[in-house]
Amino acid sequence: MIEEILALAIQHSEHAEVFEVVFEQTPVVFEANRLKQLHTSQARSVALRLVRQGRIGFATTTRVEDGASLVDRAVAVSQFGALARFDLPSLQAYPELDIYDGSVEAYDIERMIALGESLISSVRRHTPDLLCDAVVSKSMATLRLANSRGGKAEFQRTSFGVSLEGNLIRDTDMLFVGDGETSCTPLEDVAWLGDSIIRQLELAKRLATVSGGKLPVVFTPHGVVAALIAPLATAFNGKVVLQGASPLGTRRGDKVFDEKLSLRDDATLPGRPRSRPCDDEGVPSRITPLIMRGVVGDFLYDLQTAGLSGAESTGSADRGGGGALPQPAISSLVVEPGDRSFEEMVADMDEGLVVEQLMGASQTNVLGGEFSGNVLLGYKVERGEIVGRVKDTVVSGNVYEVLANIVAVGGEARWVGAVSTPAICCAGLTVGSKG
Amino acid sequence: MDRDRIAEALAGHDAEYIEVRLEQTDCTRVQYRGRDLEDISQPISAGGCVRALVKGGWGFVSFNDLDNLWEKADLAVKQAKLVGRQESTYPPRAPVVDLVEGEPGKDPSRLALADKKRLLDEYNEVLWEIPRIETSTIAYRDRSRTLTFANSEGSYIVQQDDDIALRVGAVARDGGDVQQVGLSVGSRGDFVEIQGLHQQVRETAQRAVDLLDAPHARSGEYCVVLDPVLAGVFTHEAFGHLSEADFTFENDRMREIMGLGRRFGAANLNIVDGASVPGLRGSYKYDDEGVPSTRTYLIKEGILVGRLHSRETAAKMGETATGNARAIDYHHPPIVRMTNTFIEPRDVSFEDMISGITEGIYAKNWYGGMTSMEMFTFSAGEAYMIRNGRVAELLRPVVLTGNVFETLENIDAVGNDLDMNQGGGCGKGGQSPLPVSNGSPHIRIRRCLVGGK
User: Fold this and answer.
1) Are the Cβ atoms of A372 and B257 closer than 8 angstroms?
2) pTM for the model
C-alpha cells in the first residue's frame, strides 16, 4: 500500500518518503476505586513527504484509500515549502531490539482488570479513604517506512502500562499520590508500585512548614523529571540550537555542569516503549551522549535540522505519533547513577526539602533554563530526617546554576516515563513560602 | 454517513445506551521557525467512535475505518458488559435532531492557503524588524470539522465546527540569558480575528528584548493585580477545574467541599461558564453527548450555585446536564470540560484598584497554568512591580500560585473591563489542547504567593 503511494508520488517529485503507523490500544480504566471503562482504540495514519523542485511538500491522511489526494496535496504545498537540506537514507542495517512481546496482544482483559483491582486494594489497605483512579493499558504499534532511495523499515512494538493516582481529602487539604510503570512486556508484579505509593502516603501523614530562603533540595526521580528535564531536553534539541536559542548551543566540549552529571539519549534499550530500531525517517537508532561528567556533548538531530546545521542526524526524528513533520526529540533519557543512597542524601541535610512532585514548573522560561513550581508533594528535612509534608511552597531555580552545583547523585535509578534517573541533591534552590 | 446507516449500526444491541460520533476534519497547519517557513501542510483526518453503557460500565471503541460500524458498536457493548457491575444512573433524554451549519464567511477551509501564508509572512517580517531578536516561532492551525452525533435515543445532530489558533513567540538572547514572550489568539473559524495584529506582534517581540534587562521579582507573598487575560487563566485553573463535576461526583469529600450554597468569595465575585455564550472560542450549540449548551452561573455573589456536568455526573448528583461534555476528537470519549469561563465585571477602575498598593505586583498575559484542585499555579507572561499606587519596573516572568479556596476569598476588587482570552487550549485527561476561552476584568488579590528568585 505505501509502495503504491510512493510510486505515484515519485512521478511528481525528485524524492519521496511514505510513513505509516497503525496503533491499537486497550486501556482498562478505574475511577473512584472501581472498574469503570474499557476502551479499544485503533488509529492509522499515513504521511507523505516529498521534495519537488528542491522544496519540501508534506501531507497526511487517516484514510487508506486516499493515495491520489495525498500526492496532490503534498505537491500543492511544496511550492511554499522549505528548501530540503537532506538526503533520505538508503537501505540500512538496523539493530535488533527487544521491543515486541507477542503476549501483550493476547493478554487477557480479565487479568488486566485483576491487576488494577489488586493495586487499588493494596494502597487502600493502608489508607481506606484513598480515592483511586487507575489505568492498566496494553498497546501495539506497527510502523512502516519506504523512500525513493530504496530505504525501507518495518517494525512492531508492544507496550504495557500500569498507573494509579489517588487522592485523599481531609477538610480542604488535598493530597495527591501516584506512580506508574511502562514496559514493552506485560507487567505481572505491581507490588513495588503499591509500595511506592504507600511510602508517599506514610511520609505525608504529618505536615511541616518551611520558611523562605535558599535551601538544598533532594529531587526524587519524579522530582528530577518535573523540574529539571524539560529545560535540558529543550537545550539539546538540535532545532533550538540551530535557532540560537539554546544556552548550550556554543558550549560543546565545555564543562557547564557538575562533573557528577552524565546524561545520554538511548533509543536502543530493550524493553522500553520508546526504543525503536530506527527513527521516524529510517535513520538507525543509537546512543547519543549529551552530558559526560559535566561536559556538554552532542545535540539531537533529525535529517533536515542536521542538514541546516552542517551536522549529522542522530536518529532522533520524531513525528509526534505520525501526523507531523519529523522533529528532533528525545527517545529515552538516562541519567547515570552516582554513589550516594537516597537515605544518605537526606541524612546529610541539616535543613532542606525533598521534592517529589512540582506543578507548573515547566511553564516559565524553559529556554532560559528556569523552573518554578508549586510543591505538590514534597517533604521537609530537619537534621537529616524527613519531618513531614510541606504545602503552599514554591521551589524555583535555573538548571544551569542548580546542576552546576550538585551535592550528590543517587545510586538507584528508576524509570519515570521516558527518563531513567536516580534522585539528585542540589544546593541553593530558592524556596518561597507563605508567611 | 447518513442517518439510516447509523441507525442500523445502533440497532439490535443489548445495551442500556449507545452513541456514535463521526468526524471529518480538514486542517491547515503553517509553522515558521526563525526567518524560515518550516512546515506547511493540510492534513485530513476522518474517524469515529462508539460508546456503550451497560450496568454502570462504559465500553468505548475508536477507529479510522468507518466500515463495519455495527461490529464496532457490538464490541463497545461487549466491553461495557465486561466492566459493568452495578446499576446505571443514566436517565433517558428526549432525542434531538438538528443540523447546525457554520456561520457564513467563517469557514477557514474556504480561504486560499497562499492568503493565509501571506499574512503570516507579514507577521514574521514584523518580528524580525526588532533588533536583538534571536529567533522566533509562528504556529498557525485551523480546522474545519463536520461532526455527526447519533444515539440509541434517536438523536441525530450534524454540526459544523471550525477553529483557528495562532501562537507567535519571540526569543531574545544575551549570552546565556534567554527570554521568550508569546502571543496567542484564536477564534471559531473567523479569520478576521487573527488579522491586523501587526502592532501586537511588534510589541511581543520588543518585550522579549526588554526582559533581558529586567530584574527578577523576589519570591514571597504579594498583593497582586491581574489583567483580564491572566485573571481569565486564573479563573480557569483556580476555579474552573474544581467546577468540573467529574472530579466531584464520585468523591464524597469533594461533594462536601463543593456543596452548593457554600461561600467561596465576596459578594463582588460572579463566575460563569457556558458554550451558549456566542462567538467565543469555546462556543457551540450541542456538546459531544448531544446536550444543548447553556450559560451556567458557577459562583453568584460569592456563593457556589452551580457546576459543570456531563449527563452522567448530572444524573448522579441529581442536577441538570449543562452541556459541558466534550471530547477533543474521535479518539477519546467525552469528559466534563470548560467552554467559555469568566468573571463578570463589576465597577472598580484599574486606577482605583492599584492606587492603594504600596508594594505589589501587576501581572499580565499568560504563559501557562495548572491546577491540582487544591492548589493552582499560573505563570504571567508580563509582570511589573506596583509601587505607591503606580505601575513601576518590568520584571521577569513570575509564577503565581496558591491555595484555591484562600485565594478566591482574597479577591477584594473586581474591575469594570471584561476582556476574553481566546488563545488558550485546555488539557485534561490526555485531551489537549481543547479550544476554550476565559476572561475577566482586572482583579486584585490581597495575598498571593509569587515565585521569582
Assistant:
1) no
2) 0.93
Q: Do B452 and A433 touch (CB under 8 A)?
A: no
Burial code of B28-47, b = ≥16 C-beta within 10 A, e = fewer? bbbbbbbeebbbbbbbbbbb
Question: Pick from B186, B211, B236: which residue ends a domain?
Answer: B211
Cβ–Cβ of A77/B63 closer than 8 Å?
A: no
User: Contact at 8 Å (CB) between B16 and B88?
Assistant: yes
In chain B, the number of structural domains is 2
Q: pLDDT per residue over B389-423, tens digit each? A: 999 999 988 888 888 889 999 999 999 999 999 98
Q: A360, B378: Cβ pair inside 8 Å?
A: yes
Which residues form the domain of B120? 3-211
Work out whether strand A370-382 and strand A351-359 pair parallel, antiparallel, or are unpaired: antiparallel
Inter-chain touch A363–B178, beta carbons under 8 Å: no
Q: Does A54 contact chain B (CB < 8 Å)?
A: no
**Phi and psi at residue A71, in whole multiples of 5°?**
-65, -45
CA-to-CA dists, residue A315 to A47, A50, A184, angstroms? 18, 19, 20
Q: Which is nearest to A1 in space by CA: B105, A9, A238? A: A9
pLDDT at B6: 96
Per-residue pLDDT, B122: 97
Residue of A nearest to B398 (CA): A364
Give chain A's length. 435
pLDDT score at A435: 52
Nearest CA in chain A to B178: A368
Q: Looking up cell 484514510, which residue turns up?
A: A63
ipTM score assigned to the predicted complex: 0.91
Q: Give the integer Cα–Cα distance in Å for B184 and B17.
A: 40
Please report residues of B whose CB lies closer than 8 A to that of A24. none
Q: What is the CATH number of the domain that holds A53?
A: 3.30.2290.10
What is the CB neighbour count within 10 angstroms for residue A81? 24
Helices within A252-370 (DSSP H only): 303-309, 342-347
B173 and B274 housed in the same domain: no
